[in-house]
Write a structure and sequence with these properties.
single chain; alpha/beta; Nucleotidyltransferase, domain 5; 2 domains; five-stranded mixed beta sheet; 9 helices
Length: 234
Amino acid sequence: MRQIFLDTETTGLSAENGDRIIEIGCIEMLNRRLSGNNLHFYLNPERPSHPDAVRVHGLTDEFLADKPLFASVVDELLRFLADAEIVIHNAAFDVGFLNAELARLKRPPIAHHVAKVTDSLLMAREMFPGKSNSLDALCKRLEVDNSNRALHGALLDAGLLAEVYIRMTRGQESLVIDAGDEGRGEVAVAAVDLSGFELPVTQPSADEAAAHDALIAEIDKASGGRAIWRAAMA
């Protein structure tokens, strides 16, 4: 199973009003293990970023001025994403921006190129209804270290999302690749019909029974005769 955890940073919040992608980060996972095969681009959006957006991601117009255009990386990006499950937190936002960029190049939308798109925000809302399910909130709740996230960054956020996703879907403690774990896989436990088994019942000795009766008598006295065990035994 091949999954790509994807995040973008943008010049603003509205693809419909012409905001553009300025950063794309992709983290590959094969059979629930990080492969180390990742993809990352900074992009020249050919327009200024909104000041509020810059405060979030820290990517200035000057920094992005010499970066490639989306058109020059689109083929590499689509090859990397091809036929994989794409996992995105708040997928409608990132997919909307990707589709807008693809439409400018007269390319089919992203769903045409990938196996499926999974929205981890919807998953989190089902698991934790009524709670904050931002990526930061999930990192805190699931004990994923996001101490390096002073600013949003597409590759960093994609990596955090991969860790959060694993913990949401299986409870695995870490995504660290350990060569010593190669032989360990998930163990399938077959259902067992217990109706044919007779469980042995060990009877108390006389001393144990007497000690139990004495304890019940003490509890009954201390509770003013409210010990329910005596009524049950009677």
